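Worked Example 4.2. Read the sequence first, then its structure tokens.
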Amino acid sequence: MRRIQITLDDEPAETVDQIVKIVKTTRSAFARKALKDAIAQVNIKMLENRHKKGYGHRPVAKSEFSVWEKELQWGDK
């Protein structure tokens, strides 16, 4: 594990200190989890943008998913 140093404004630093006491963790663990979650959100957004761009170049045909309609079960039958 690598050690890094970050600088926070007073308000978010105080909020983090309050939260870590409540959830019984450390600043480092809290920061690791927050960064991991932020990275995951960025990756999801990038994938969504790639999908959007791909469907922009090659839109879904109206009949593309119709072959599955008879397989769908909505539980009301």
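Now turn to a second chain, presented in exactly the same format:
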Amino acid sequence: MVKNKYDLIRIPVITEKSTSLGEIGKYVFEVSPRANKSSVKKTIEEIFGVKIMSVNISNKKGKIKKFKGFLGHRVDTKRAIVTLLKGQTIDLSGGVK
């Protein structure tokens, strides 16, 4: 299991799509490969002090790319899309409790 809650929830994903999801109460985080839905829900509720309605997790396989003529491989990532209850928000630009 993960020792520290900040090892489980690595970083928030800030993209155009995730920003538009934030307007409807959904937030995207990159999580540890060993994370599951219940541990993500518990950890985000502890860190941000919000109530979560649901958690969806997706595995994103890294692409094979050429880097300066050599084949390389991007890192596999795991993302969690967290849906909050009505009226709850997470300020990703501010501090953490």
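Notes for the reader: The first strand starts at residue 9 and ends at 12. The chain has one domain: 5-84.
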